[in-house]
Design a protein that fits this description.
The protein is an alpha+beta fold and 91 residues long. The protein has one domain (2-81). 38% of the residues lie in helices and 18% in strands. The chain has helices at residues 2-21, 25-34, 77-81, and strands at 45-50, 53-59, 64-66. It has a three-stranded antiparallel beta sheet. The two termini are 24 Å apart.
């Protein structure tokens, strides 16, 4: 069972790495303004695996997740429209 979880984590990290390479224009614009602690010294990460999701941006210190909707989300509009609650333990 643990092997399956590790395989899933590896795939998730590989996917996150690919998403960092293929950022949308909106993600590039925001990343240029929040990277290197430009907002009151808070550190943000981009395309970060968090639980079963890969979030666009996260500030672990403030437990803040930022998700941008863009062209790559077009297929998942019905899914995105459904309200959901996701709680993750952010160390």
């Amino acid at each position: 069972m643990k092997m399956n979880t590790d395989g899933t984590k590896k795939l998730q990290h590989k996917r996150a790495k690919q998403l960092r390479k293929d950022m949308t224009d909106a993600e590039r614009y925001l990343w240029a303004r929040i990277r290197r602690r430009q907002i009151q010294g808070f550190k943000f990460r981009r395309q970060q695996p968090l639980g079963t999701y890969i979030v666009d941006f996260v500030c672990l210190e403030k437990k803040l997740v930022v998700e941008l909707d863009g062209g790559q989300h077009a297929e998942s509009q019905a899914y995105d429209a459904q309200p959901f609650l996701f709680t993750a333990r952010i160390a």
